[in-house]
Specification:
The structure holds two protein chains of two kinds.
Chain A: H1 2-17, E1 26-34, E2 45-48, E3 53-56, E4 62-68, E5 71-78, E6 85-91, E7 95-102, H2 107-110, E8 127-131, H3 132-138, H4 143-147, E9 153-158, E10 162-167, E11 175-179, E12 182-183, E13 204-208, H5 213-216, E14 223-228, E15 239-247, E16 252-262, E17 269-280, E18 284-285, E19 288-289, E20 295-307, E21 311-325, H6 335-344, E22 361-378, E23 381-397, E24 410-426, E25 431-446, E26 458-474, E27 477-496, E28 499-521, E29 524-535, H7 539-543, E30 545-548, E31 553-556, E32 564-576, E33 580-606, E34 609-633, E35 638-651, E36 656-657, E37 665-674, E38 683-692, E39 710-723, E40 726-735, E41 759-767
Parallel strand pairs in A: 1-7, 11-14, 31-34
Antiparallel strand pairs in A: 1-4, 2-3, 2-5, 5-6, 8-13, 9-10, 11-12, 13-14, 15-16, 15-41, 16-17, 17-20, 18-19, 20-21, 21-22, 22-23, 23-24, 24-25, 25-26, 26-27, 27-28, 28-29, 29-32, 30-31, 32-33, 33-34, 34-35, 35-36, 35-37, 37-38, 38-39, 39-40, 40-41
Chain B: H1 2-20, E1 38-46, E2 52-62, E3 74-75, E4 78-80, E5 85-94, E6 99-100, H2 101-107, E7 112-117, H3 119-122, E8 126-130, E9 141-146, E10 154-163, E11 186-197
The chains are: A mainly beta, B alpha+beta.
């Protein structure tokens, strides 16, 4: 900070010194980046010897030097731990734009610390992230709920315990979640299957809103979520972070600890170990408890890394387990039960508070291990290798008779191997890119002994992909493009009655994207990205055949389904000034052969009663929408924010609407900071409001009409306290302060219950 | 450099092992343990002194495959004589697993209950009361009285088995409790039998 201030002063002094009048009106703009990863370098110092003028780069690595005289100049760029750049340039007329890439100095020579190798996504598509203060605010919430804070991201939930992130109207198998760089592979096809990941392991949650099939493989149609831990430390310094969270609603408690450090003896060796555990009981709606909505969750992750100037290696392991209850009343035996409870609009059971869980419930365990290595062949070329192993075990228990009640009705084991080998180049010229191979292998087995005909067959899946990405960067302009080809083979086998049914299906597809970023001026940037994506049909869409227990629905798959293909165009405009930030994202997504579950209008009669029959169909779909978010500083103490999103989705063949598309929504808030600190910000009060409109674009068939719109008020207070050299942060937050009774259209359990009532939350965050 | 080669070899071996060992299990046949395939209503006449007389009349509803799309259950018509009183017992079986579910229902009597609805009761053609051992409201055994003057010879009776309900819910002791859904739980059986009076 001080260093930066000094540099700025220097720059100021220098520019004053050159104010002598001549025909000197030329402007030099430029950008300074790390050669290693193309990240901008802040506070690099740029000096022009002949003009005796200099400036430090801003947070985006940009610099501007004005009032320059024509003629040859020597530009000199310095930044700590990096090789100095000294280059001769000739200034002719108008404005010049240059990009410089700084190479890290070898450790042994300078004695400077090795810095952690952070993988960043270099993309020209719209990206939003939660980190730092904003991430601390959502600590303790699940992934879906946390990401709701970002414009354009909503949730698709099943009661208050299960929520899945939705990006621009797409979810489940149409988006990808990466746990530290590895595609999270669970049973994501199910609406009631939450992602098996704990956001506590991340120090940054990033949402990429474009179609990113080329980079990450099939299915990244709506976008990608990156759950990234902090880079491993490479110095001896040890840091521990403790989070304690308590909630009044559900009377839940959440403890999370993370400890990281480096070795003093071996330079470049770092580690982190992190864990969290959560316990919650029945959730309370304003007028009643929701029976059986508790949960208990534990997660653990650890990583070990070793870096030298040329080699970077990392081993990572994460474990996640959860046991969660499903609202008892939502589990219905047949259609007439279902209609009765929908008519009632609230649970019949008069539940009380308890932590204990009964059936129906889910028990899920997920292990993920990965090893990663990269090697700098030379300053411009880097070879990367990554291998991940995942084991996912999902057990779903229904209310059953006798001994069967202790046995799961769905018991699936899924093993996934992923391997990736890619070669990055980051040339001193304007080109960067990579070429890679990507292999996914999966084996899914039904564990015998459920006493229920399995919903999906056992299967083996192999997906191979090859891709090429290239990016051109010059001054304010970045252009990129990529190509990919994938081949997937799926062989399934199951018993239908006494008959063994075996099937092998293959899918293949190419995908491509082009994108660009233009920094119009230092405050305003425009990005545009046009990408294609594809998604082969999922096993449940192909093979479902029978009763979906609890949902009172018979679902019929179709093995003739073909891959979905989409083309998504995302444009975004970002404005950043001293007082204002503004981000506008507009997109259009055309999906051919979109797969959806369609009510046939028929019912099926059995001894158990009547069920609605649904079938998987394909139709062309068109999604488009807008996300807008902005902040404004009225004064140093008084700040405001607002964000909102609008989505429109249509079945263009039937000219009808799809179910479970988020309705229009926005939230806004004001915060006031005060205190004794120099920057007056150790206390902060935040008042915010969430406004959600009614979904007026409803599908032709729904069990009940879309619930009315609602408004929620939240109030929070946070305080930072210095405890010696350490920071303690305490916050109290009241969500749904007015205890408003409401139902969210995107919650599948809106048929049965109102959403969560008032919740008071107390949070402690201590770093030492 | 030598070390690097060694490490890459180990890595390669690990990955090869990972990929080679990733294979799905062969599927096994799963018998639906919970499915009810046959429900038999057995009627035996009771005389004036409440003694069982005559032969047992059986009427069956069956669905041999359990719940399978495209198949509909076969339901026999119940034939009862006007003005008579019967003891009705219900037998529930899973023919796939060859399992007597009646026994399980009896064992879990605290969580199960039959309700009897439909036109026969709405029009007072029949009246019914629980007659299970121990005086509990379960419905495996009931006493059914047929009105001596039914307006029609053709009617219907709906038999519902509820599971995991709150048996002490107000009104739930009535075998004709139409709002059984309010007592919570879920439906295991919901069959409408045609009834013929003679």
């Amino acid at each position: 900070m001080i260093q930066k201030a000094i540099l700025l002063c220097l720059a100021l002094v220098a520019s004053v010194g050159t104010l002598s009048a001549q025909k000197c009106d030329l402007v030099l703009r430029g950008r300074v980046l790390h050669l290693e990863n193309n990240l901008p370098i802040e506070a690099a110092y740029v000096w022009l010897s002949e003009s005796a003028t200099g400036v430090a780069t801003d947070a985006n690595g940009n610099f501007v030097l004005k009032n320059l005289c024509p003629g040859p100049q020597t530009i000199q760029i310095t930044f700590i731990g990096h090789k100095e750049i000294k280059q001769s340039i000739v200034l002719n007329s108008g404005t010049s734009n240059l990009t410089f890439k700084m190479e890290e100095e070898a450790v042994a020579l300078s004695g400077v610390e090795v810095h952690g190798h952070r993988e960043v996504v270099q993309t020209t598509t719209a990206v939003s992230s939660l980190y730092g203060e904003a991430l601390i605010q959502v600590r303790g919430e699940n992934l879906g709920e946390s990401l709701k804070r970002l414009a354009g991201v909503t949730t698709f939930s099943t009661g208050s315990t299960i929520s899945k992130p939705v990006i621009h109207g797409l979810h489940s198998n149409r988006i990808l979640i990466l746990n530290n760089g590895i595609r999270l592979e669970g049973q994501q096809w199910g609406a009631e299957h939450a992602p098996e990941i704990d956001p506590f392991l991340a120090d940054e949650l990033t949402v990429i809103k474009g179609a990113e099939t080329v980079r990450f493989g099939p299915e990244a149609m709506g976008g990608v979520i990156l759950v990234n831990p902090a880079p491993l430390p490479t110095s001896k310094k040890q840091v521990t972070e403790l989070n304690l969270i308590g909630n009044s609603n559900g009377r839940s408690g959440n403890v999370a600890v993370a400890h990281s450090g480096g070795s003093g003896k071996i330079v470049g060796l770092g580690y982190r170990i992190q864990g969290s555990t959560k316990r919650a009981g029945n959730i309370q709606s304003p007028n009643y408890f929701q029976g059986n909505t508790g949960l208990s969750e534990t997660s653990l992750s650890s990583s070990l890394g070793y870096s030298t100037d040329k080699l970077g290696t990392e081993a990572y392991y994460s474990f996640f387990t959860t046991e969660l209850g499903i609202l008892s009343d939502a589990h219905t035996g047949n259609l007439s039960d279902l209609l009765k409870i929908i008519e009632n609009g609230a649970p019949f059971s008069n539940a009380e508070f308890t932590y204990s869980l009964i059936n129906p419930k889910q028990v899920v365990t997920h292990h993920l291990g990965k090893i990663k290595a990269h090697y700098h062949l030379n300053p411009s070329w880097k070879l990367n290798f990554q291998y991940g192993f995942q084991s996912n075990h999902r057990q779903e228990y229904d209310k059953r008779r006798g001994d069967l009640n202790a046995r799961p009705s769905l018991d699936l084991e899924l093993f996934t191997n992923t391997a990736e080998l890619f070669l990055d180049h980051n040339l001193k010229s304007h080109w960067t890119g990579s070429i890679g191979l990507h292999l996914i292998q999966q084996a899914n087995s039904n564990v015998p002994g459920t006493g229920v005909t399995p919903l999906i067959p056992n299967y083996d899946l192999v997906n191979g992909g090859i891709y090429l990405l290239e990016k051109y960067q010059k001054g304010p302009l970045e252009l990129e493009g990529g190509l990919r080809y994938d081949y997937r083979s799926l062989s399934t086998s199951r018993y239908l009655g006494n008959r063994l049914q075996e099937k092998t299906l293959t899918y293949q597809n190419g995908s491509a994207f082009v994108g660009g970023l233009y920094q119009i001026n230092p405050k305003l940037a425009f990005t545009s990205n046009l990408g294609t994506a594809w998604r082969p049909p999922n096993v449940n869409e192909l093979f479902s055949q029978g009763l979906h227990h609890g949902a009172a629905a018979v679902e019929l798959g179709d093995t003739q389904l073909i891959s979905e293909k989409s083309i998504k165009w995302v444009n975004s405009l970002e404005f950043e000034s001293k007082k204002t930030t503004l981000e506008l994202t507009a997109y259009a997504n055309q999906i051919r052969d979109y797969i959806y579950l369609n009510p046939t209008g028929e019912t099926f009669v059995s001894l158990r009663g009547t069920f609605n029959v649904y079938e998987y169909l394909q139709a062309d779909a068109f999604f488009y929408g807008l996300d807008l978010s902005g902040t404004y500083s009225f004064s140093k103490q008084f700040n405001g924010y607002a964000k909102g999103s609008i989505i429109r989705a249509k079945n263009t063949e039937a000219n009808s609407y799809f179910p479970f598309i988020p309705s229009d929504r926005m939230d806004w808030g004001l915060s006031y900071s005060f205190g004794k600190h120099a920057d007056n910000d150790n206390n902060r009060i935040t008042l915010s409001q969430v406004l959600v409109a009614q979904q007026s674009r409803e599908p032709d068939f729904d069990l009940s009409p879309a619930p009315p719109g609602y408004a929620l008020v939240n109030l929070g207070f946070s305080k930072k306290i210095k405890v010696g050299a350490n920071g303690l942060r305490i916050s109290v937050q009241a969500n749904n302060l007015l205890n408003t009774e409401y139902k969210e259209y995107m919650n599948r359990f809106r048929y049965f219950t109102a959403d969560m009532g008032r919740n008071l939350q107390l949070k402690l965050n201590y770093q030492f | 450099m030598k070390n690097l080669k060694k490490v890459s070899l180990y890595l390669l071996a690990l990955v090869a092992f990972g990929f080679a060992s990733c294979k799905s299990e062969d599927p096994t046949q799963e018998n639906d343990g919970e499915v009810i395939t046959d429900v038999t209503l057995k009627f035996q006449e009771l005389n004036a002194s409440n003694a069982l007389v005559g032969s047992v009349l059986s009427f069956k509803a069956s669905d041999p495959q359990g719940i399978e799309v495209g198949k509909t259950p076969t339901i026999q018509s119940i034939n009862l004589a006007k003005g008579k009183k019967y003891q009705m017992t219900i037998e529930v079986t899973n023919a796939i697993e060859n399992e007597d579910i009646t026994k399980e229902i009896l064992e879990e009597a605290a969580e199960h209950q039959f309700f009897f609805l439909g036109q026969v009761f709405d029009s007072s053609f029949l009246s019914i009361q629980y007659a299970d051992a121990g005086g509990i409201a379960l419905g495996l055994k009931t006493i059914v009285t047929v009105s001596s003057s039914t307006g029609t010879n053709n009617s219907s009776m709906r038999v519902v088995l509820r599971h995991d309900l709150n048996k002490s819910f107000p009104g739930a002791t009535n075998p004709n409790f139409a709002n059984f859904v309010q007592a919570g739980g879920e439906t295991d059986l919901d069959i409408t039998f045609p009834v013929i009076f003679s």
